[in-house]
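pinned: reference chain
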Amino acid sequence: MAKIYNSNINLKAIGVPVNYTEEQLKEYVKCKNDPVYFIKTYCKIVSLDQGLIPFELFSYQINFINTMHNKNRVISMQPRQSGKTQVVAAYILHYTLFNEVKTVAILANKKPAAMEVLNRYQMMYETLPDWLQQGVKTWNKGDIELENRSKVFASATTAAGIRGRSVNFLYVDECAIIPNTVADDFFASTYPTISSGTTTKVVLTSTPLGYNHFWRYWQGAEDKTNGFIPLRVRWQDHPNRDDNWAKAQRQLLGDLKFTQEVECNFLGSSLTLINAEAFGSMIPMNYVYSKDGLDVIRAPVKPVKNSEGELIEKGNTYVLVADTAEGVGGDYSAFTVIDITEIPYKMAAKYRSNKISPMLYPNVIHKIAGEYNEAYVLVEINKSEQVASILHDELEYENILFISRSVKGQVASGGFGGGKTQLGVMTDKKVKRIGCHNFKSLVEEGKLLINDVDTISEISTFIEKRGSYSADDGYHDDLVMTLVLFSWLTTNPYFKDLNNVNLREMMYKQHIREIEEHMTPLGWFNDGSPEIEPPLLNF
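pinned: its structure tokens
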């Protein structure tokens, strides 16, 4: 009888010699070269109805295993109850058995979730025949080490990540559930070190949960910009799922969770300002330039002059709206550049940094506003007027928008008019209410195009709270607020003078046209009675 590990009769201790038969040697080589064969032939799982049974793989699971085996960067979006946890556990088992001196990190939002993957690994290991096992050096709840010096450990994903540990295979389960604040710090501190290895494997799996970090990695994979192979599994790929199953799941989960967790569609919270249909039309664009917090989506369209210096093309008109923070690592100082030359308005560039000081921020605004044809600049001044003052007084930027204050509220101007005048806008309740309302209308009616990945992510977590809108817990809304303030600006009479665009009139006409198309009776006919005019529609 082979020596056992720590009284566990299902585990082989270290130093136990194995006398392979010729058939076992052939099987060992076959298992090493083909993880799908190994899993189907020797791995077992627990069925609620049948107990311990062989792991019969479906075609989409085989594809997942082969992709993990042949590629180093894999991101997979799978619906609930698709068996991804068991598949990954089985592949990690193969990876550690047939590779020496490898370390696998299993991470999840909470440690119990990561432990669940490791528990499945351990159960499969214990059901292997002795001649396929490695000797066991460590076999704890959260840590395993084999005789071939390969290790597996499970942990929660934290901001510090797994810094200081050499990892050859990083698996992050339910990646989308990790809070953005933790995920951003984790990937910033951990992922660059891990991904620098030429053979290191990184596997991310999740059902979607809004437009967050997992969505950004998925978009990068589909755009082929981050090295990940995207692998999407649909509930229809499971041979035991049909329309009746889907109907029961929808009734159990509700429409929102069914759409996210079963159909695997990226949606924001049900409380978001912007509706789900509008989210679907937001397509992130690749940046034409990106450095030090600045991302250029569309390069400035400059004026064109002929050889005599005469202006033959005006160039596009831009507005830059800036939100200001303290630059101490919390909220971000952010601005968005919007092309207002024609409708729909388009995002041209964005800047975001939580480290830049208010003393230096005006120089960044001045530089980028100048590049965008001396863009009109609106600065939010809730925390301080320092940024606006430096921009106007020291840098002598001319196209800064003034705000006149009166008992009726704030109004954008060129520095003239009655009431108190200030260098920027205070985001009070009225400004925010009008801005949010108009932002929703602009986006949902296709009058403002959002093509920036970070902005889309923020919009997806910009939710209703106590009668207003702000970022969900653990998220930011600095970029969104620049667009809210821009949307407030478009309601000001002065805005139409910036580029001769009267948005209110255009939106009104479109509403009238839609009402006439969808609410007018199919046809009027004369039945001999006195003519009756259709009712007036009031707004």
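why pinned: The first strand starts at residue 4 and ends at 5. The radius of gyration is 30 Å.
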